[in-house]
Amino acid sequence: MILAWEFFKRDAITAVSYRASFIVQLLGNVLVLGVFYFIGKTIGPADIPALEDYGGSYLAFLLIGIALTDCVGVSLTTFAKQIREGQLTGALEATLMSPTSLPRILVYSSLWGYFFSAVRFVLYLVIGALLYGVSMDEANIWSAIVIFLLTVLCFAGIGMGWASIVMLIKRGESMMTVAGYVVILLSGVLFPTSVLPRWLARLADVVPLTHALDGMRRGLLRGQGLDELAGIILTLGVFATILLIAGMVAFNWAVRLAKKTGSLTEY
Hints:
mainly alpha; single chain
């Protein structure tokens, strides 16, 4: 725990020390919400059957989609980013020789990113409520917390798998970009999955974010509790278990292969 705290404190001090970048990032979140606010205003309070399960407000639907997807982005990229930085600076090989295992170092180095993503998530909701009139009066906080944590775990496993690919091929941003677009298309970030063709809707069921968004919207916009969301929570728990195990296995395999081929110092 002490080591984890030291990593967290180091990264927090580094992030806050770049004040201009830190403030601009937060302002960027506000501006993004402004863009989607006017999209919601353009659509207006129309009666959209696909939104009935989430309270009927497209702006509220969109707000939660963007907020949770922002957190997912951290899980997908944080581990691969650290691996890539280690390759470019030549620190990766030294890190592997340290007493602390590389997976633990990656997790500890991601703590600030996860914490700040949670802060941004709350910021999205607060700004949406205060500036843009999104109602969170029925929000069930415990449901939101559980769904948020399970979402992080699901995509942390995917992020570890992506880090293993970066470990071996060094680059691959275009692959992640395409994967990101596929996830946004299928998971219901910008529109309900019920409007998708049936075959795409079935495919959407194998994307963890689809279930995470459904549960988060039901918890925050309809006030559904943990018992009402039990099916979604169980599904996310299964996803998290499988993806974390697969991610760790893939990452350990990639490290062993990189050591065997001597490609750790290549970039």
